[in-house]
Write a structure and sequence with these properties.
single chain; 149 residues; mainly alpha; 5 helices
Length: 149
């Protein structure tokens, strides 16, 4: 069990280290995007970022540990090939998961940009917009156009 144990320990150390590093990067950069999105509610931005990081970490570590299946004794070369293959699969998976989280953050940001564009449109006079005046507040008009009612 000598080589298998060494490979297992190395794999776990690398998997946990990569997950912690990516999770902290996701938290820092994602928090900035969420703060931009929810500038009036910084605590909500922090909480959302933490929840996404927790989900990322749990999913990634669970997947990493599921990849680690060693059966029987391995020679040194086989153990090294096994470690490289598993780490390669893990890195590709981490890249895909990180991309998914980045897309989620960007979607949050895009929805904020759309809301701001709607609010800017609502601030124009009815004559500038080519519409009839409404008694509804601008944010209510924006929701009606989007169909959020």
């Amino acid at each position: 069990m000598g080589n298998a144990l060494v490979v297992s320990v190395l794999y776990i150390v690398v998997a946990v280290s990569l997950t912690v590093w990516l999770a902290s990067t996701l938290y820092r950069n994602g928090l900035e995007l969420l703060r931009e999105r929810d500038d009036q509610q910084p605590l909500l931005a922090q909480a959302t970022s933490r929840l996404l990081v927790i989900g990322f970490s749990l999913f990634t570590l669970g997947y990493a540990f599921l990849l680690l299946r060693i059966s029987g004794e391995m020679t040194g070369v086989v153990a090294l090939q096994f470690l490289i293959q598993r780490l390669g699969i893990l890195l590709v998976s981490l890249g895909l998961i990180h991309l998914l989280n980045t897309l989620i953050f960007l979607r949050f940001r895009r929805s904020r940009s759309e809301e701001e564009a709607d609010d800017r449109t609502d601030r124009r006079s009815p004559r500038q917009r080519g519409t009839q005046p409404s008694d509804d507040p601008p944010s209510e008009q924006a929701r009606q156009r989007r169909g959020d009612r």
